[in-house]
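User: Is it possible to get a 3D structure for a protein together with its bound compound? The compound here is FE2/S2 (inorganic) cluster. I've pasted both below.
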Amino acid sequence: MSLHLVAQLDQLEDATPKVFSVAGRSIGLIKSNGRVHAVRNVCPHKGAPVCRGTFKGTMLPSEPDTFVFGMDDRILQCPWHGWEFDLNTGRTLCGHGNKKLILYPVTVKDGAVYLDLGRD
Ligand code: FES
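Assistant: Yes, that's possible. Here is the predicted structure of the complex:
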């Protein structure tokens, strides 16, 4: 385990990715609903700075002519080609199963945000 102090929780705005340099890596933190996601700022498709994208929900599979929105506060959409990624798994929703975001475990303690970079 390799814990790094990255930010204070009050530096983060709800649902707005903020990018930090941590041990030579560009990593985005996204605070939402009391949880903090940590994402390597590189899209697995073509390498875009994915944390410049939009944090949102998405349209769910539904019957024709119906529109059901869901997965709110869980989807990061890449700014280059629009791929959507589930921040619970890192996987893209567009069917490229082997393409995943790199996610890092987050610990929040006494208002400070720590990341475990592991061996990445
Ligand atoms: S570089 Fe992110 S979707 Fe293409």
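The radius of gyration is 15 Å. The first strand starts at residue 3 and ends at 8.
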